[in-house]
């Protein structure tokens, strides 16, 4: 609990490194033609940081690397190397200002989740026509794409037409990325089901290199970007109107939603330690279930930030 990576300042420790952005979970640094992406242990939801989760950054980084390696048949990606358990070095590219959210079920609790908008009567969402009579956690007849764009502090759902007409993406680029996103999700669902899990929904980000190659960036099928349910119990629990057994952060989202207004309250209550530990275990469980490997817990007591600084400096010298 005490050795979490909440903040990074690699630009003060590694010569030639410039801080480019601090995201909700990842801190991004620039070094020439490369980006250094540091995945912290920060836990975000409702467009803000809720807590720090032990080993979360390592799990997210290593989960993404596993999926990046196994989805090259669908799309190239920006990964160059991973010099540390929390770090990925990537090629620089021009990032599309759209998040490609793919959904297979009507569920969720956030303002932009499919169940939230559906329960309010919306039947055309991001260009997808939805039938009447669906209930929470029901499987869609086909996977759908519900893109969002970034506002100042929240995501805004958009239709494909709005993306193209506003100039956020060309039609050619959008069509290519949409195809890649749906193919990635279908493959992810297939792999998840082979391991007793349901990949419910996820988000992807893409960028374009100087030579025009569209690449997958950021993260892939992690418990932060995705919702997972336990497959074996889904049908019985759905028929009994019970919430699915999940392997993601939904239970922490629900705790904050039940104990405060996470969108408007200036100060949030501290996440209970038992929930923080439970979430850490779920992240590790998901990684080990999908990859069939044990998460290697660093044995050294070296502070995480010091270890990362040393490994990144060495990797950049060798690029």
Task: Report what the structure shows.
The model has no long low-confidence stretch (mean pLDDT 94). It contains 9 helices and 17 strands. The radius of gyration is 19 Å and the shape is globular. The longest helix is centred in the middle third of the chain and has 24 residues, at 171-194. With 319 residues, the chain is of the alpha+beta class. Strands 8, 9, 12, 13, 14, 15, 16 and 17 form an 8-stranded antiparallel beta sheet that branches. The chain has a 5-stranded antiparallel beta sheet with strand order 1-2-3-7-6. Strands 4-5 form a two-stranded antiparallel sheet. The chain is 34% helix and 27% strand. Helix 2 runs parallel beside helix 8. It starts with 9 loop residues before the first helix and ends with a helix.
Task: Write the SSE topology.
Layout: H1 10-13, E1 18-22, E2 26-31, E3 34-39, E4 42-45, E5 48-52, H2 56-70, E6 79-84, E7 87-91, E8 94-95, E9 98-106, H3 114-119, E10 124-125, E11 128-129, E12 138-145, E13 148-150, E14 155-157, H4 160-165, H5 171-194, E15 197-208, E16 214-217, E17 226-230, H6 231-239, H7 250-259, H8 273-291, H9 304-317
Antiparallel strand pairs: 1-2, 2-3, 3-7, 4-5, 6-7, 8-15, 9-12, 9-13, 9-15, 10-11, 13-14, 15-16, 15-17
Protein name: Phosphoribosylaminoimidazole-succinocarboxamide synthase, chloroplastic
Domain SAICAR synthetase/ADE2 N-terminal: 21-266
GO molecular function: ATP binding; phosphoribosylaminoimidazolesuccinocarboxamide synthase activity
